[in-house]
Structures are given as structure tokens and as C-alpha cells.
Amino acid sequence: xxxxxxxxxxxxxxxxxxxxxxxxxxxxxxxxxxxxxxxxxxxxxxxxxxxxxxxxxxxxxxxxxxxxxxxxxxxxxxxxxxxxxxxxxxxxxxxxxxxxxxxxxxxxxxxxxxxxxxxxxxxxxxxxxxxxxxxxxxxxxxxxxxxxxxxxxxxxxxxxxxxxxxxxxxxxxxxxxxxxxxxxxxxxxxxxxxxxxxxxxxxxxxxxxxxxxxxxxxxxxxxxxxxxxxxxxxxxxxxxxxxxxxxxxxxxxxxxxxxxxxxxxxxxxxxxxxxxxxxxxxxxxxxxxxxxxxxxxxxxxxxxxxxxxxxxxxxxxxxxxxxxxxxxxxxxxxxxxxxxxxxxxxxxxxxxxxxxxxxxxxxxxxxxxxxxxxxxx
Length: 377
Known about the structure:
Blueprint (H helix, E strand, L loop, with lengths): L24 H15 L18 H12 L5 H6 L2 H10 L8 H10 L6 H28 L7 H22 L22 H17 L2 H4 L12 H15 L6 H10 L9 H8 L6 H29 L5 H26 L8 H6 L19
Helix pairs in contact: 1-2, 1-5, 1-6, 2-4, 6-7, 6-13, 7-13, 7-14, 8-10, 8-13, 11-12, 13-14
């Protein structure tokens, strides 16, 4: 895309500025619209859906702002002299000093049909919507990987809300219609957002602590096997939840037997290693579960942001497809959000006191200095 001049640059003619990238189609749409408005200022009403920030080029947005700010000239007088054009140029150059009279005449010359101004404005509006959506998606993906945030999940979910608002705005601007769903390939899954060793250790501690305190398993339905990073750990959690649902006895041996019935030992895990893993509880199962769920929610938010970025990078996707694809991606995050709220919301006041007494208090990371036995992965 042609380089955008800044207000501090010398008054070079925009025609002479070197191109660092080939112009995109929207660049020509912007030129055509501005040319139409310079030639026939009364067509400004055809561009009611856009503003100066809708343009991809700073100088173009500044010029549009100047056109919109000045009263439209008398058509007959405008056809005879350049008084109004000079006023537009003077106003625009206060913020884009690189603009010249020559460039304004170029815009007029390259406009195919001034009567198509509304079509040009719609093209600009479409690309602005795409850029806006991409900016929100980038912020969501970046927030999900920001390890410095004191409250990462609420912050990421707030960014997701802003992204949802942008999608809703696009849906309001571009009515739905029949058409195919976006076929943009999904980006490859990102690497672990935290240290793989840290994630594996937390999962192992959860499994051991939940085995030692099986009553906690029934209270943690907000945690699913998909939240785990290690397939064996995901399978062991399914073993624990299955035993809890059946009201079956739970201890390292019964979990080992359930794992055998589910074919988990065929992955190479040794029974003795599993018994060592399940026999080293520490801290609170709820604490470790929330840690695992937090990581899962952030990973989902990151993937949703990258997925929507991929949509915006595909120039063949229409605004309708952007809306449909983005809403489908955000639905995955909504499900994770619901489970997070369930996990972190205070217990209902109607919970029987006897049930509360059996639940272990939430604890921070264990103080034990003996690390649980590792399973070869």
C-alpha cells in the first residue's frame, strides 16, 4: 500500500511518493470516492456510512474530513473556478502537509463515475470493518498470552466482549444474506502458553489430590478432559469423573483399574508409575483445577483471536461471512467462559452446611518439597 505521509513531512507530491507495497483495491476505491466528492461535492450524502477514520491512508482521511467540514459550493460556481478546491486543500494540509493541488486533480481524473460514489463508500466501509475486526482480534490474542496481567482471564474476557461488540456493529451495518460460510483454513494451534513442565505438574497434582479427596470431583464438573494438555492426564480425569458418577470407590488402585479398562495403559504408562502419580496429593484439588481451567480459557481465547485474524486476512470473505465465522469462533470461548464463571463464583447460600464441611478449603500451591513422580511422555 502506498506510503502514508505524516504531517511533519515536506510538501512532496503524493504522486511522487515511492510505493513500498502494491496498492490494495480499497486504495483505488478511496481515490475514486474522493475524486467524486471533489468533482461533485453534493454526493457527500452518498458516503454517510463512513468517516475520516474509515480510510486506510491518513492523507485520504484528512482530505475527506476537510470536504465534510466545509459547506458545499454552488454547483454552477464550482464548475467555473477552483475556489472551493483551494479551500479544501488549505484545510486538509493543516493535518497532511504532503497534499498538493496536483494530487487533488489526480483524484478527480482517476474517478471513473462520480455517480458511483455510494458504491465506492461501501467498499471503504467494508475494508474499515475488516481492519477494525482484525485489531480487536489481535488484542484478544495478545491479551491471552500476556503473563504480566494480575487477572488474565477477566481481562481476556473483556477483550472478547469488545470483539463481540465489533462483530455486532458489522452485522448491523451489513445485513445478512444467503451465502456460503467462510472456508478460510484455521491457523495451526499455537504452542503452550505456559511452561509445558508447569502445566504437566499442575495436572498431576490435581489428579493425585482429587484421588485423595474424591468428594471434590463431583463439585468440579466445570473441568473437562479437553482442558488438559497431556492426553494421559485427560484420560485419568475421565476415569475419576466416571467413578464419581457411579458412586464407586476411588483410590489409586481403583483409578488404575478404570484406566486399564479404558485402554490408557496401552499408551506405555506403567501401572507402578500411575500409582506413584496418584499417590502424591498436595494442596487443594479446586485450586489445581482452577489453574488448569484458567490455562484452557486463555488458550481458547488466543485461538479464537487468531482464527478471526485469519478471516480478516482473507480478502475474499464478505462482511456477512466475517460475522458468521467470528460468531462461531466466539461461541467456543463463550462455553469456556461459562465454565470459568461456574468454577470461580461463590458457592450458593442454599448449599447444605454438611456438604460445605466436607469440601476442603481452597489452598495455594503446596509447600511440599517432594515432587511427584514423572511419567515418561
